[in-house]
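Interim report to the steering committee. The following record documents the input for Aliphatic nitrilase (326 residues).
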Amino acid sequence: MANRTIRAAAVQIAPDLTGRAGTIERVLNAIAEAAEKGAELIVFPETFVPYYPYFSFVLPPIQQGPEHLRLYEEAVVVPSPETQAVADAARKRGVVVVLGVNERDKGSLFNTQLIFDADGTLALKRRKITPTYHERMVWGQGDGAGLRVVETKVGRVGALACWEHYNPLARYALMSQHEEIHVGHFPGSLVGPVFAEQIEVTMRHHALEAGAFVVNSTGWLTEDQISSVTEDPKLQKGLRDGCMTCIISPEGRHVVPPLTAGEGILIADLDMALVTKRKRMMDSVGHYARPELLHLVHDARPTQPVRRIEEEQDLTTSQEQEAEDV
């Protein structure tokens, strides 16, 4: 891997705000376009399918009911025909695809990141551990089981969504698993120009600290789409800018100029030798760590609302009965 070059693509396009079918079509078209340009890794924005819940940022809670219910109807079940379509595209093109979705699991929605390996297998399904601010009314919480780096055709890949990057321990959990390529997802078209500046700082810092490449994708809304979310000109200001689709080297530098407005696909070649070059100087989870002074406890067990112990009870009862018979 040290002497390999990986071609990565970071996609910044608009979703179809009318539903998942249209957005999935855009995903498949972008996979085809990026693959034709030689991409081996293709990254899409946060909860891109069917769309990021922009309504939750500008509407008061009492008005969110209809849009929240519509998001339930359009959300993605994993597995489903939609995830199979992406898996098939990844396998057909021989590419690794990282896609953000609104995942529906029975009565709950989750901000979920899916990593499809180049053979079409779902290498990772992880849920954002803590939805941010307005998002807490939309999504449930993820768990430590998703803080996992996976082996793929392009190397060891880890992923976090949006402000999870402001949780240094979540980042360290992935760094400790020696990720070589880190994938970031943000919604884009949110908050304003300051959001793009913050994203850039965060992505460049993680690349430096992790000694890894960072491929980050943010979404984009057209003016018509912004108007469809809210007709209030003052609130519309909160649905513009905030885009920073970028590809960062382990040295904290942009490999290609970032995409901060409009639709497009960034393509860059990642010289994986730079991972070792950076870590030779500073390996945060290796020779630069001081685990006897500071260390992370990572509970990687999936959380469950119910733990059923009927079988244990049956076994105990059986053992007690055998003792009485003796």
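Residues 45 and 218 are 5 Å apart (CA to CA). The committee is asked to note this result when reviewing the revised timeline.
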